[in-house]
Write a structure and sequence with these properties.
Layout lengths: L1 H21 L9 H8 L7 H6 L6 H5 L2 H9 L10 H7 L22 H5 L8 H4 L2 H6 L8 H5 L15 H8 L6
């Protein structure tokens, strides 16, 4: 009898660990208001201010224009641009995630925001975790070895408004390193 219990518990434990390694728990989106509470400060480089003055912060608003709706219609979509997933995928964060993963302060209207590039922040947002990069990554922070590859997921010829993408020039406008 005890051998059966041990076997069942071992199998359950092993199965749970395999499941978690293939399907890690999802982190929740906290939104720019939460990120900005710390990232607006001068000692961290005023990252919020850089984002607020960027076109990324206006990306969702661009989808609400007649011009965007015309482009969506011309591309054969039957929905407004602001409702078209092919448009949303590059203009907002969190459009395609379970709504239970969108925190109270998260707003899709913030467009291309912190968590678009850095990953959902619920589990790495605390100062204690953020001060340890390895720990932050373990808790969901996304760090790109080659950020150009991330940028080109949207800044590419599939975009109906594509212009040649000069990564170095654009990166200089949006990068927001912490001052040393």
């Amino acid at each position: 009898m005890s051998l059966v219990v041990i076997l069942i518990l071992s199998t359950t434990f092993l199965g749970f660990n395999i499941f978690n390694s293939y399907y890690p728990p999802k982190h929740s989106y906290i939104g720019t208001k939460t990120c900005g509470m710390c990232h607006k400060k001068e000692d961290v480089g005023q990252q919020l201010k850089i984002w607020e003055s960027s076109k990324h912060s206006q990306a969702y608003k661009n989808l609400k224009t007649e011009k965007a709706d015309k482009v969506a219609k011309d591309k054969g979509f039957k929905t407004k641009a602001v409702e078209t997933k092919e448009c949303l995928k590059c203009h907002v964060s969190g459009y395609d995630v379970d709504k239970s993963l969108l925190g109270e302060k998260f707003s899709i209207e913030d467009g291309v925001q912190c968590e678009t590039c850095h990953g959902a922040g619920s589990d790495y947002k605390s100062k204690k975790i953020m001060e340890d990069k390895k720990l932050a990554v373990e808790n969901g922070l996304v760090v790109y070895e080659k950020p150009e590859e991330l940028c080109k997921k949207c800044h590419n010829q599939e975009s109906p408004f594509y212009k040649e993408f000069n990564f170095k020039e654009m990166w200089a406008k949006i990068k927001h390193d912490k001052p040393k």
